[in-house]
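Note to self: keep these together.
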Amino acid sequence: MINKPLTIGCLAKLADINLETILFYQKQGLLQKPEKPIQGYRIYSSEDLAQLIFIQRAKLVGFTLAEIKKLLMLGEDCDCHKAKNMAQQKLMMVNEKLNDLLRIKESLESYIHHCGSNEKSNKCPIIQSFKNNI
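Structure:
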């Protein structure tokens, strides 16, 4: 835990994110904006740093900012089934994307194979296949 007062610049450095990202998260309601004293800088807490790290980790596994906001609202003491349900839904979406990527990979491999086997023709099979699929 950090005991010294954190300015927004220090918070950004510790969380390894841009200062603008912190401001954006505040606008999105993901992070509270501390009151600004009459003189001086806004001071952030170690809890704010922990929340930024939470956001970054949730983003790494594919949660959107809207989904992260819901997770944050659940809190640590929530019914774990709600968080589990969100994670299961995210996993289903990831699996769908993986299947889409595999179909794209197979299509590209087929295009590349046909292009290499058709060197005598003046027409590129890749370009022709895109034109013919319209």
